[in-house]
């Protein structure tokens, strides 16, 4: 079983009996750490579920232990899937579960008027211009179905790499050439600095989509640098994205992205072993609220899902019970 398919419950079962009553905060065993800012960065593509809440709790726990300010950053640049009700659900969930944040929008109106990624389009376009003028980007006209028809592992086969289409070709992606990629050093917690290379799934990844909009890997880096984020907490399934973003940062003008620390936590999975998904309609916090569950009941449900021995009733009591091994060691079965 691949490392990214292992559930939190499997990890807890292995640890049960060895780490009884260990505090989540013990993950900071490497010594006193301090960070400037971390972020909660949901995508409004559906209603939030228990897996999202777990990630938020881990982020808040890291922030409160290390002095980091928590920024709420909502990644809404995929305008085809954007719906205001999903943004509203983010605020409803955070307020209902009393999950704190220190910076960023306080409600839907504040978000749309001041914090939407649409307002930062000039920053993204500036980065794309740099890549277009000086970076190894090229135009790709391949569709997803074309790529899936010639590869079995989601890796881009390099079909358009040497076709040299103009960058202003309509309805075409920009891909970042990664053929010269060298080993990358990534600061991870609590393991320390790890050296790795781009996985096949991230070779020649897209930085500008066919509609001319910047792709996720680029907007995420630009936003984190813009807001001064130096601690990123995310699911272990995003480890390939972390690697890709480090490579992309190395192709941009001098920046501090390589100094950012990353904590990759294990994923909450469904009965079939797949990670929970908003788009797949996994049980949402909204539906639990509508079922007359209070916040304590939802934290209790999350405790039982995780196989914890005591039921949590808020984010603090949940964080206290998460073992110090609630992370995925990279480099094994990736």
From TrEMBL:
Pfam family of this protein, just one?
A: tRNA-synt_1c
Keyword Lipid metabolism among UniProt keywords: no
One GO molecular function term of this record is:
ATP binding
Cellular compartments per GO CC: cytosol
Keyword line: Aminoacyl-tRNA synthetase, ATP-binding, Ligase, Metal-binding, Nucleotide-binding, Protein biosynthesis, Zinc
Q: InterPro entries, from UniProt? A: aa-tRNA-synth_I_CS, Glu/Gln-tRNA-synth, Glu/Gln-tRNA-synth_Ib_cat-dom, GluQ/Sye, Rossmann-like_a/b/a_fold
Where does the Glutamyl/glutaminyl-tRNA synthetase class Ib catalytic domain lie? 37-304
BP GO annotations? glutamyl-tRNA aminoacylation
Write out the coiled-coil annotation as residue ranges: none
Claim: Ubl conjugation is one of the keywords in the record: no
Question: What family name appears in the similarity comment?
Answer: Belongs to the class-I aminoacyl-tRNA synthetase family.
Name-wise, this protein is tRNA glutamyl-Q synthetase
Which organism is this protein's natural source? Answer: Paraflavitalea soli
């Amino acid at each position: 079983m691949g490392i990214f398919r292992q559930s939190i419950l499997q990890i807890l079962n292995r640890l049960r009996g060895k780490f009884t009553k260990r505090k989540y905060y013990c993950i900071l065993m490497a010594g006193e750490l301090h960070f400037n800012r971390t972020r909660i960065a949901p995508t409004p593509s559906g209603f939030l579920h228990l897996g999202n809440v777990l990630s938020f709790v881990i982020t808040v726990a890291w922030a409160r232990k290390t002095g980091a300010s928590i920024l709420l950053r909502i990644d809404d640049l995929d305008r085809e899937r954007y719906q205001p009700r999903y943004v509203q659900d983010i605020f409803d969930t955070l307020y209902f579960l009393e999950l704190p944040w220190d910076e960023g929008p306080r409600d839907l109106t504040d978000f749309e008027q001041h914090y939407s990624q649409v307002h930062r389009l000039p920053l993204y376009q500036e980065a794309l211009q740099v890549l277009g003028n000086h970076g190894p980007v090229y135009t790709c006209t391949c569709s997803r179905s074309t790529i899936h028809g010639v590869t079995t592992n989601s890796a881009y086969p390099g079909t358009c790499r040497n076709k040299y289409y103009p960058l202003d070709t309509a309805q075409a992606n920009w891909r970042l050439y990664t053929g010269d990629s060298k080993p990358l050093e990534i600061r991870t917690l609590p393991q320390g600095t790890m050296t790795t290379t781009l996985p096949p799934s991230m070779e020649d990844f897209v930085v500008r989509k066919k509609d001319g909009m910047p792709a996720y890997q680029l907007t995420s880096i630009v936003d984190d640098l813009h807001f001064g984020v130096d601690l990123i907490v995310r699911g272990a399934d995003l480890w390939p994205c972390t690697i890709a973003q480090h490579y992309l940062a190395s192709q941009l003008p001098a920046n501090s992205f390589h100094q950012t620390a990353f904590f990759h936590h294990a994923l909450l999975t469904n009965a079939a072993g797949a990670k929970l998904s908003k788009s797949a309609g996994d049980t949402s916090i909204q539906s639990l609220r509508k079922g007359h569950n209070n916040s304590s009941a939802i934290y209790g449900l999350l405790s039982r899902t995780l196989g914890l021995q005591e039921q949590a009733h808020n984010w603090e009591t949940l964080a206290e019970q998460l073992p110090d091994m609630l992370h995925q060691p990279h480099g094994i079965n990736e």
